[in-house]
Specification:
Helix 1 packs parallel to helix 8 (176-182) and helix 3 (55-65) crosses helix 5 (105-120). The protein has one domain. The longest helix has 16 residues, at 105-120. It has ten helices and four strands. A four-stranded parallel beta sheet has the order 2-1-3-4, with helices on both faces. It is an alpha/beta fold.
C-alpha cells in the first residue's frame, strides 16, 4: 500500500509521516509526495503568479485540477490521498474563523475547511481523502508533545514552538530533518495516550481518527 500526500510544505509531510508510522505502522517508503514533491517547486512557481503564491495555494490548485490525485489513485494499491492544509490563513482561502472563545472552535473550523476542500475537489474522491487540517498550524500539533495546554488557540504556533523548545535547550531549523526529530514521539502510538496529545489539539485527534478509520 502507498499513500499520496498533498501538503503545504516538506516539514508538514515529515510530521504527517511520523504520525502515520505511529498510528498504522506506515513506513516512509510507502508515502508518495504529490505536492510539493522533493524537487524544487519550479512548476508551482511558474504556474502561479508571484503575488498570489503561497503554500495553501499549491494545495488548492491540486485539489481543483486533480491531475496528480487522479493519476495516483488510478494505480492498484494506491487508494488514499492525504490532503493537508493549515487553518492559520483560512480567511485567505475563503473560510472565516469561528470566535476563538467557542468551545468547539477547532471542530467547527475544521469542518468548514473540509467543506471548502470538497468544493475544490468538486465533490470527487471524498471517500479516498484523509483530511489533515492543522488548527492553526502543524507546529501546533508538535506543541502537544512539549506543552500541556490547548495549542489550537495559539495565535502564532511557529513562534510559540520555537520559544518552548528553546526553553528546553532544543534548537532546530525549519528543515524536514529537524522536524522529523522534534516530532519523533508521534512515531509510537503509546505516546498519544501517555502524553494526552489529543487533549491539547482536537484537530490532531480528528486526523488520527481518520487514519484509524480509513487505513
Amino acid at each position: 500500500m502507498k499513500i499520496g500526500v498533498i501538503c503545504e510544505g516538506h516539514t508538514d509531510r515529515v510530521v504527517i509521516g511520523n504520525i502515520l508510522k505511529g498510528y498504522k505502522g506506515i513506513d516512509l517508503s510507502q508515502i508518495v509526495p504529490l505536492r510539493p514533491d522533493y524537487s524544487r517547486d519550479e512548476t508551482d512557481l511558474a504556474e502561479i503568479p508571484a503575488d498570489s503564491f503561497s503554500n495553501w495555494t499549491i494545495v488548492k490548485k491540486e485539489c481543483e485540477n486533480r491531475i496528480k490525485i487522479r493519476k495516483f489513485l488510478s494505480i492498484e494499491g494506491q487508494d488514499i490521498v492525504i490532503v493537508h492544509i493549515d487553518s492559520a490563513e483560512s480567511d485567505e482561502y475563503g473560510v472565516s474563523k469561528p470566535l476563538i472563545k467557542d468551545a468547539n472552535y477547532s471542530i467547527n473550523l475544521r469542518a468548514k475547511i473540509v467543506t471548502k476542500i470538497n468544493e475544490w475537489l468538486d465533490g470527487q474522491f471524498q471517500d479516498k481523502i484523509i483530511y489533515a487540517i492543522a488548527i492553526e498550524e502543524t507546529e501546533a500539533w508538535i506543541l502537544t508533545i512539549y506543552e500541556k495546554r490547548d495549542s489550537s488557540k495559539s495565535a502564532k504556533p511557529k513562534e510559540k514552538l520555537k520559544r518552548v523548545l528553546s526553553s528546553l535547550g532544543i534548537n532546530y531549523s525549519h528543515t524536514p530533518e529537524d522536524f522529523k526529530i522534534i516530532s519523533d514521539k508521534f512515531t509510537k502510538k503509546k505516546n498519544f495516550s501517555k502524553g494526552k496529545f489529543f487533549s491539547y489539539n482536537a484537530s490532531l485527534e480528528e486526523f488520527c481518527n481518520e487514519i484509524e478509520n480509513k487505513l
